[in-house]
Give the backbone structure.
Amino acid sequence: MNRTLKEATVKRYPYNSHDELKLHMQAFLMAYNAKRLKTLKGLTPYEYICKIWSEDPDKFIINPHHHTVGLNSS
């Protein structure tokens, strides 16, 4: 994942500020987390985390459903 992020951001685009990088990183992560991955058996990274949480919530400090983005997010 780190290599994927680095290749999609700092190795590909020049940034004039840290804020530019943060904005691009946020957009990239939103797109990446919506992508279905073969290694996760066709689930998105977010769906996979929610699946693991539902199977064993003790592995997590917080409920991953509280980190959805949209109208009800804070």
